[in-house]
């Protein structure tokens, strides 16, 4: 090979090396500036809780696609990086570490489960990354960190609403709990117990780990104490239905309460309409007349050929992407600035209605009482 040929060959090699380094560093533009805006997402994508995570992933991807098709944010497309939190603290912590340290995100949507958010929060806070949850409702997350916010309400309102209806409307003096040992069910129990006890009521409780499949011993203990009602307090509808099935086998018929994990699953409610008739619950309501919410339902159906499941979560998941897009336009892709900006949000119009975020990171508003009638969830009235 001639000297000129060698120079050309080495030049080509150098160009390829530079191109490879640039590619591995994550889509850089002119001057090394990132050409996409990376947003991490932590959802339960496997296990029983995947019934929330999979549609959540669809909704978030739908919102990001709409924003990108409209030109992105500051002329850059959003790049959503999905990680499986498995509704588990350790898995969510690993996901957060990866998103913060490897992907270098400035904001994470999630977790969905409260256990995911509680585990991811210290990692996000240490890195000054905003953690924005559209689904975690544990009261323990209120005011947790300047880097944690949520647009789904705390379970303090879910427990309070159901305690009020139970004692003051139904006249129940004793309510038994079958409570799964996870942060979300525990938050509901604590809020219910505090309010119900303040009214003069009494709660009984049997706890169980998520791996439990045989609930008959616990149910038998509670049945023997003759409570006025039973609260099936689980993370997922699948676990609640296993308990309900074994109650039927034990021939225990008692008024029921369930968390929004059950009332939010239209298929579970319809498939078990006889067993769940007159069951009480509380939900963060949707407004079918809200044009943004209606658009979400129509767009989801068009894209995925299915109705939007868990619509009370879908509306907040959809809003979370649009809120972040607006925030990034306003203050840039910076976790510290976004955490301050988002606390100034007041009466922001979205699929979930007018959104206001307080200084403690919680969204204004809360749950309303619901009742299951003939396989459908409707507003509870006295």
What does this structure look like?
With 382 residues, the protein is an alpha/beta fold. The chain folds into two domains: 34-153 and 288-351, 3-Layer(aba) Sandwich (Rossmann fold); 156-283 and 368-379, 3-Layer(aba) Sandwich (Rossmann fold), CATH 3.40.50. It has helices at 3-24, 50-69, 89-102, 114-127, 155-169, 183-199, 216-224, 237-249, 260-263, 266-271, 291-304, 311-331, 335-341; strands at residues 37-43, 78-84, 107-109, 130-133, 148-150, 174-180, 202-208, 229-233, 256-258, 280-283, 348-350, 353-355, 368-373, 376-379. Helix 2 (50-69) crosses helix 12, helix 3 runs parallel beside helix 4 (114-127) and helix 5 (155-169) packs parallel to helix 6. The longest helix has 22 residues, at 3-24. The N and C termini lie far apart (92 Å). The model is unreliable at 1-26 (pLDDT under 50).
In short:
The protein is α/β, with parallel strands linked by helices and about 375 residues long.
**Backbone CA Rg:** 24 Å
The CATH class assignment of the largest domain is Alpha Beta
Query: CATH-wise, what's the superfamily of the largest domain?
Result: Response regulator
Main sheet record: 5 strands, parallel
Please report the total strand number as a whole number: 14
Class computed from helices, strands and strand pairing: alpha/beta
Structurally, the number of domains stands at 2
- Share of residues in strands: 15-25%
CATH third-level topology of the largest domain? Rossmann fold
Q: What is the end-to-end distance?
A: 92 Å
């Amino acid at each position: 090979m001639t000297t000129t040929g060698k120079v050309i060959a080495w030049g080509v090699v150098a160009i390829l090396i530079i191109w490879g380094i640039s590619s591995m560093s994550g889509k850089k533009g002119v001057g090394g500036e990132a050409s996409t805006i990376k947003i991490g997402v932590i959802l339960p994508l496997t296990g029983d809780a995947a019934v929330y995570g999979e549609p959540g992933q669809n909704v978030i991807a739908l919102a990001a696609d709409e924003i990108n098709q409209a030109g992105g944010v500051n002329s850059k497309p959003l790049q959503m990086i999905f990680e499986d939190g498995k509704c588990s603290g350790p898995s969510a912590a690993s996901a957060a570490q990866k998103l913060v340290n490897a992907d270098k995100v400035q904001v994470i949507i999630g977790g969905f489960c409260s256990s995911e958010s509680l585990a991811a929060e210290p990692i996000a806070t240490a890195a000054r990354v905003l953690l924005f949850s559209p689904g975690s409702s544990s009261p323990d997350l209120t005011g947790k960190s300047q880097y944690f916010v949520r647009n789904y309400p705390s379970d303090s309102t879910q427990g309070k609403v159901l305690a009020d209806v139970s004692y003051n409307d139904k006249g129940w003096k004793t309510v038994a709990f079958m409570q799964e040992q996870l942060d979300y069910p525990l938050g509901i129990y604590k809020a219910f117990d505090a309010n119900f006890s303040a009214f003069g009521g009494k709660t009984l409780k049997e706890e169980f780990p998520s791996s439990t499949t045989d609930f008959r011993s616990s149910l038998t203990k509670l049945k023997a104490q003759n409570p006025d009602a039973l609260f099936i307090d689980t993370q997922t509808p699948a676990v609640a239905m296993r308990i309900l099935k074994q109650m039927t086998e034990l021939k225990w018929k008692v008024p029921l309460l369930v968390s929004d994990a059950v009332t939010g699953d239209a298929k579970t409610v319809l498939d078990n309409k006889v067993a769940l008739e007159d069951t009480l619950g509380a939900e963060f309501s949707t407004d079918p007349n809200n044009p943004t919410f209606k658009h979400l339902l129509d767009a989801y159906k068009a894209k995925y050929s299915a109705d939007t499941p868990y619509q009370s979560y879908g509306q907040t998941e959809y809003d979370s992407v649009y809120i972040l897009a607006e925030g990034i336009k306003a203050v840039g892709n910076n976790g510290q600035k976004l955490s301050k900006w988002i606390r100034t949000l007041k009466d922001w119009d979205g699929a979930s209605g007018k959104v206001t975020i307080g200084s403690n990171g919680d969204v204004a508003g809360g749950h309303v009482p619901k009742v299951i009638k003939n396989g459908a969830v409707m507003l509870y009235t006295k």
